[in-house]
Design brief:
Blueprint lengths: L1 H30 L2 H4 L10 H15 L10 H8 L1 H14 L13 H22 L3
Helix pairs in contact: 1-3, 1-6, 4-6, 5-6
Length: 133
């Protein structure tokens, strides 16, 4: 039981770190004009509310690392990041009034979301690898 709780807390903490990397990556893409260059109207403001929401969601999505999948850390982080990307594009953004895939923000919006989620997933997986998981 103690090992399970240890793994649970490590995965949640790694997910929080991944959520922070996702949030900062998405902010940087908007701040430095990458999203505008792709024709995507997505440039979030960096605020405590913006960071907090993504860190908590990242922690919850980090629980996916509890799955018994021990392949290469880069592949694991990239593949598991598709779950939160799909959740964003197919559920959360439509709940906020956007269409499925948020194409009304620009046709490359799914690419931006998947890239930002991959950044967070890879960062979380790398942190877990440094912890020996």
């Amino acid at each position: 039981m103690r090992e399970f709780v240890r793994n649970l807390s490590l995965c949640f903490a790694a997910g929080c770190f991944g959520g922070l990397c996702y949030a900062l990556g998405l902010w940087a893409m908007g701040h430095y004009g990458f999203t505008h260059w792709l024709g995507v109207d997505l440039a979030p403001r960096l605020s405590s509310t913006y960071l907090y929401q993504r860190i908590v969601w990242g922690g919850l999505c980090g629980l996916l690392f509890m799955l018994p999948w021990r392949s290469a850390w880069l592949l694991r982080g990239t593949a598991l990041s598709l779950v939160p990307a799909g959740l964003l594009l197919l559920y959360l953004l439509p709940q906020r009034g956007y269409d499925y895939g948020a194409f009304m923000l620009g046709y490359m919006t799914p690419v931006v979301i998947v890239l930002a989620c991959a950044l967070g997933g890879i960062a979380a997986s790398a942190l877990l690898r440094l912890q020996g998981k």
